Amino acid sequence: MAHFTSNTQIHANTLKEKYMMKCLFTFLLSSLLIFPLLGQAQEYTTSNSKAEKAYEGALLAYDQRNLNLSLNFLAEAVNRDPNFIEAYLLRFEVYTELRQISEAEKALEDAIRVNPDFFSNAWFYLAALEMHQGKYDEAEMHFERFLTYPNPNPDMKDKALSELENCAFAKKAMKNPVDFEPKNLGPAINTDAPEYYPAVSADNQLFIFTRLDKDPNAFRGKNENFYASRNFDGTWLPATPVRDINTVYNEGAPTLSADGRTMVFTACELMGDYGEGRKGFGSCDLFIAQKVGDRWGQAVNIGEPVNSAAWETQPSLSADGNTLYFVRGRPTKEGVKNQDIYFTERRGGSNWSAPRPVSDKINTPGKEESVMIHPDGRTLYFSSDGHVGMGGLDLYMSQKDSLGRWETPVNLGYPINTFKDENSLLVSADGVVAFFASNREGGYGDLDLYSFNLYADIRPTAVTYAKGKITDDDSGVPVEAALRLYDVNSQQIAGIVSSDGKTGDFLIALPTGNHYALSVSSDGYLFHSETFELITSESNEPYALDVRLKKVKEGSGIVLKNLFFDLDKDVLKEQSSPELKELGAFLKENPDLHIELSGHTDNQGTSAYNKALSERRAEAVKKHLLTVEKIEAHRISTRGAGADSPISSNDTEEGRAQNRRTEFKIVGAK
Questions:
Q1: In 3D, which of 148, 156, 137, 229 has the Cα closest to residue 191?
Q2: Residue whose C-alpha is closest to residue 38's, from 92, 99, 76, 75
Q3: Strands 636-642 and 593-600
Q4: Cβ distance 185 to 451 under 8 Å?
Q5: Lower CB density within 10 Å: C or N end of the chain?
Q6: Sign of CA dihedral 186, 191, 192, 194
Q7: Is residue 139 within 8 Å of 125, Cβ to Cβ?
Q8: What is the pTM of this model?
Q9: Where is 141: in which H helix or E strand?
Q10: Tens digit of each residue's pLDDT (9 = 90 or more) over 368-421
Q11: 372: closest CA among 185, 590, 198?
């Protein structure tokens, strides 16, 4: 689950030679290309019997996984014959398995020095080692040398051509570095243990991440747990364990909804049943938990069709909690294969649609992971080794076009990306600050979490949020309510959230620069409507909104703030459609109610004209309810109040705009 681990395996080859090379860490994880070593039943390139005997001892020790003993035998073999090519090649494989890159590289160079044409694939593996160290000039030269030999392995040829593209990209990127100044998040977050995979709420108040704790009772003595920190006046407070979610088993890679009240994460239960809701379908699965008040509820398996016998991990939840992106792969003995990004959509309650691959422009035959959908809903960040980049896993960004199609991914550039693996990127709602994990020098030990400012070209659409509390108008008691936000211009739903059942608090993330209509509803209450505009600004201040819901009873009423008419007109504008649907739904859910629709104007114009205009506007709303929403005519009466009942001053344009309104009031029931 953690991105700093790798799944590598060793295979036997029985065609002519005896061994396959263990993959070069991340570089060859996806391909496991064959490195043939000469076996015992053949003639060697040495005539020294003692060198040959030492080499065969090294082979036997290698078979028994005694790598240090194998190296001792190989040292004796090349000491007795410095031109013994097979000994250098086996030394290369042993050092590769020990992850001693510089020693593996030297072993290959020694073999090539003796005879550069003895084993043509040596040039490929030398280039691979150099690529793994960011030696792009050398790697480029040696991949090109490998390709000069006739009839190369097709997979290796394709890989070499791909890496040559990466070399060219990397050298150009290094000549044109992007702005990148990472800052360690400090001792409140980081320790000498690994910290990685962060998640943050849209208001930047809740920060959750994974920490690999030492645990003598856990498998392999370590256990992945979640920790949470709160933001106090711009400073992260010391992180504490999320005890409601953490278990004696591993939890990792959390993602949060914008309001911080829904968490999806990965747990690898391997078909086990470790308490209610923690049974897995095989390999790693996605689990979900809801927060009410200050407590997280029981985490439960999201279930089929999202989870399967495959490997589901590294989720990213959309701001409204209704679209889930994640990585799915096929677990094999050689590691996880066919890692691609999928998405699923909530179909109501706990039901999710069958997952689909996100896009062929994003997914590649290589490996995709570490997906993050920004709260703007149209910008995706992810890691991949299948797109042109610096080598290994690089970070990329893709955005949806006006038709909702994902565009060609953009590499985030050097030095954000390097020859090492980069992933685990998180971007704040305002699109300015990004978080990531790194084991770079100067940290607290192992992986630490860092932040940096994104340069302008790779920023998403700035997102702010509306935040407030829903309460009962009479008692002030918190109310659990559904909030639906519409983009006024497109009339499309921009987000659906609910307020906290214990506190009444809500938060919904929204792209800036748009005009929104809000509708709040709860059983037993009149719905509440609000309209507001989020203007882009450097401060990116959220929209504060507290709503007091009125109980459904005779005499109660509300202003329909999301009904729109042109000035001095009585024709409803198209932007009024969401509000009319809300009003129609309310009347259908309360079939015994009778209402009065009243139109109101400002004091400009004559009294007679204003009364007539206000009556026509009320009648326009009634007509829509009758013809489109199919509400019975006898349930709706209308009244033109003109300018007789102002709710604000008519001395300002803002006040006059508030006075131009439509209200509805409950006037009776069957």
A1: 229
A2: 92
A3: parallel
A4: yes
A5: C
A6: negative
A7: no
A8: 0.83
A9: helix 136-146
A10: 999 999 999 999 999 999 999 999 899 999 999 989 999 999 999 999 999 988
A11: 198
